[in-house]
Amino acid sequence: MNDFIQGLPKVELHLHIEGTLEPELMFELAKRNNVDIPFSSTEEVSRAYNFHNLQSFLDIYYQGANVLINEQDFFDLTWAYLLRCHEDNVLHTEIFFDPQTHTARGIPFDTTVNGIHRALKKGAEELGISSKLIMCFLRHLDEESAFETLEQANRHKDKIIGVGLDSAEVGNPAGKFERVFKEAINQGFLTVAHAGEEGPASNIRDALSLLKVTRVDHGVRCSDDPTLVEQLVAQQTPLTVCPLSNIKLKVFDKMEDHNIVHLLRQGLCVTINSDDPAYFGGYMTDNFMAVANAHPMSKKEIAQFTFNAIEASFISDKEKERLK
Ligand code: HPA
Ligand code: ZN
Fold first, then answer.
1. 46 has a pLDDT exceeding 90
2. At what residues does the UniProt record annotate the site feature described as Important for catalytic activity (predicted)?
3. Which of 29, 205, 218, 292 is geometrically suited to a Cys-Cys bond with 67, CB 3.0 to 4.6 A?
């Protein structure tokens, strides 16, 4: 089964590029840019990556991003991720970036987006990996800041396909961003949102009705609401589930308790993704392996995660055919 999973073509739809910052690159960039980091060795970093919930992770994740200063840093970060994709046979990836994490530190929007985009272009040319870029608003910040960010994205519409919503779910309801998502849709962006990771199933309902999302990031708490599950099955609304992330952030106690395979068998369009692989201990193949080891599945079921991800992706029908 390991060889089957390793060789299986994969499509990733839930990946925060800032969450691919491996400790080695963090140290290298800290040195290159003369930035202080609160760690003196990779062992110390590993010890710090012992999270008890989403917020305890976010605190460390935003701190790590401080080493990203120049366009080349964002290029190096993205290129390192694409090389890992190549190893894992990831053929297409749709990645999130958090512009506000960087503009708040005085790093221009253009620096971030241009560095990421240059690496994605090289990934297509040299590794044959296609990609899309999704800009996330930080939900702990206010609506005004989200509108400013949307304005900054205007010059980069050719590089950004959609907008998303991430950061602390509890206490920051979807309704806070209803107007900015409406404007983003008017401007031609697709929409996705994190919902039902730490927050209740009603947050998934709100993301669908208020933000008009075409897929839900995480969404695992839908199981608490059978009527919602029926609706998600009927509409084939994709859920971008991140198994290792959910264990690291204690959404489920252990992989055996994870509901992803149950959701698959209920007919939901669930996909497997890595979220923040440098922080959660695994890239795409590791996530597939962890699920398959805890939940015996047929090869057909495992491959269904890839078929679902192809369907759920933001590529054209013609491009979808290339991946099938
Ligand atoms: N949830 C919310 N915000 C995030 C995550 C996540 O899993 N990863 C990076 N930002
Ligand atoms: Zn996420």
1. no
2. 218
3. 29
- Asked if residues 139 and 172 have their Cβ atoms less than 8 Å apart, the reply is yes
Count other Cβ atoms within 10 Å, centred on residue 194.
29
Copy the structure tokens of residue 153. 């994205």
> Is 197 among the catalytic positions?
yes
Exposure class string for 39-63: b at 16+ Cβ within 10 A, else e = beeeeebeebbebeebbebbebbbe
Q: Are strands 190-195 and 90-97 parallel, antiparallel or unpaired?
A: unpaired
| CA max distance for the chain | 53
Ligand 1 is surrounded, with C-beta below 6 A, by 16, 19, 54, 166-167, 194, 197, 245, 275-276
pLDDT digits (tens, 9 = 90+) for 154-209: 999 999 999 999 999 999 999 999 999 999 999 999 999 999 999 999 999 999 99
Residue 166 CA: nearest ligand 1 atom is 3
Task: Give the whole-number percent of the chain exceeding pLDDT 70.
Answer: 100
- Give me the phi and psi of 35, to 5 degrees please: -110, 135
Q: What sign does the dihedral 283-238-192-241 (CA atoms) show? A: negative
Fold type of domain 2-22+69-313: TIM Barrel (3.20.20)
pLDDT for 207-219, tens place per residue?
999 999 999 999 9
On whether ipTM exceeds 0.90, the answer is yes
pLDDT tens readout for residues 283-306:
999 999 999 999 999 999 999 999
Nearest CA to ligand 1 atom 7: 275
**CA nearest neighbour of 224 among 197, 253, 194, 248:** 197
Q: Which atom of ligand 1 is nearest to the CA of 276?
A: 8
